[in-house]
Design a protein that fits this description.
Blueprint (H helix, E strand, L loop, with lengths): L14 E8 L6 H17 L3 E10 L4 H9 L2 E6 L7 E9 L5 E6 L8 E9 L2 E10 L6 H18 L5 E7 L3 H7 L3 E3 L7 E2 L5 E2 L3 E7 L3 E11 L8 E11 L5
Parallel strand pairs: 1-2, 7-8
Antiparallel strand pairs: 1-14, 2-4, 3-4, 5-6, 6-7, 8-12, 9-12, 10-11, 13-14
Amino acid sequence: LAARSEPSTASPLVELSVATLQLPAQDDPAWVARREMIVQALATLRPDVISVQQVMQEGQRNPACWLAGRLRYHCDFVTADPPSQPQRHGSALLSRLPVEQDGVTLLHPPGKYSAAGMMRLPLGTGEVNVYVARLRPEPDSPENRQHQANDLMAWIAATADGHPSLITGDFVAGSSEVVRGMPGFQPSRRNPSTRVDKSGSSDSSHGLDLLFQVKSFSGVRQQRIELPAEGELPALRLGVLAVIRLQEPAG
């Protein structure tokens, strides 16, 4: 007798795409000239989550949340500055997935961009925590970098509730220090290289990236997000897009 095949009960692989960006300031002519092109580029990529570093807000407006409005994403502006302050500095988390929980904490030593934030989002049949942080302390030193990393790891331990977690951010430490300072997390860039600025000087900082828990995720791919040169406008590097996958099928 022929063996009867059973229908497959395996759940489909679950992936999450996260863009980590730095936008031109809202008073920068490049922002006004290129913002519609930025909207089009991100609408084409359609990341699940967008994090924006070094956001400056005057009044009720900032470029990140303007972008979220155009893309129809939820926007959380993460800042330690009080609402009464004319200029507020921080980062932003944007999500096209429903936000089930969010929060903010302050990393020490405190500084202009030392607030960290989180969102809990549905993924597959479960949930995932997305944290945003700019680990560039003021003043910068190995001790201050480790203090901020320790604060962030302690906050993740207190708020993760057993869900898979990842960190999107900007890291001044070198890649090896980033991995040592946040055990259990892996950069999505497999071979981060030293960056060289226009003046020719090197920058050994890790830079913009997504860190994921190796026990929960695996990296799939990463690509740069940039606008090509157009007319008199030079090419504009915005950041990176990382796609990661849950290690186990959802459910």
